[in-house]
Amino acid sequence: MTRVTMICSGNICRSPMAEIILRHLLDEAGVDSVDVDSAGIGDWHIGEGADPRTVAVLQRHGYDGSAHRASQFDASTFASYDLVLAADRGHVRALQRGARTDADRAKIRLLREYDPEAVAAGTLELDDPWYGGTADFERCLSEVEAACRGLASELQRDLDRASS
Ligand code: 4NP
After folding, report:
1. Cα 144 from chain centroid?
2. Which residues does 143 contact at the CB level (< 8 Å), separation at least 6?
3. Which of 8, 13, 140, 148 is an active site residue?
4. Taking the CB of the first residue and of the last residue of the chain, which one, N or C, has fewer CB atoms within 10 A?
5. Cα separation of 86 and 92, whole Å?
């Protein structure tokens, strides 16, 4: 199994969107050897569902976010992941502080590094929609979708290469 975790601040907006969308794309592609989860750097929302605005924007685009429960990232679990994907550079810094080995540090990337347009534009952070409105949640979802499409293709390519 390849294991991917998506990280944001509260695990109620950005990283649940990323988890649900990546899983959906992999399911659609028939890829069943990638485990996806998500967590927050903070502990404020542990056990809560995703923000209602997250569930609503996911639903408008055909995804089901109703089963999500927020959790906090535990740095002692680094070894169990292949990729630890951060929404913004603040999360990257927090993850780097928690990583104990170079191998763990090498797993940390920004999610939008998988979106070629974001790379070309140099807009690699996923802005927090929490303080915003519907338009911010819509923008966030479309940025997450673009990155997850790139990530799903790369994961598929890696798996195809490994099996050939
Ligand atoms: P997220 O958004 O990190 O995308 O889940 C936030 C959710 C909650 C808070 C901050 C950001 N908060 O401060 O509680």
Report:
1. 8
2. 112, 115, 118, 126
3. 8
4. C
5. 6
CA-nearest of 74, 71, 80 to 2 is: 80
DSSP string, 103-117: HHHTTEEEGGGG-HH
The answer to whether the beta carbons of residues 61 and 141 sit under 8 Å apart is: yes
- Ligand 1 centre to CA of 5 (Å) is 17
**158 close to ligand 1 (CB < 6 Angstrom):** no
How is residue 95 annotated by DSSP?
Answer: H
**One pLDDT digit (tens) per residue for the chain, 164 residues:** 999 999 999 999 999 999 999 999 999 999 999 999 999 999 999 999 999 999 999 999 999 999 999 999 999 999 999 999 999 999 999 999 999 999 999 999 999 999 999 999 999 999 999 999 999 999 999 999 999 999 999 999 998 898 88
Strands 34-40 and 2-8: parallel
Question: How far, CA to CA in Å, does 116 sit from each of 16, 96, 111?
Answer: 22, 24, 11
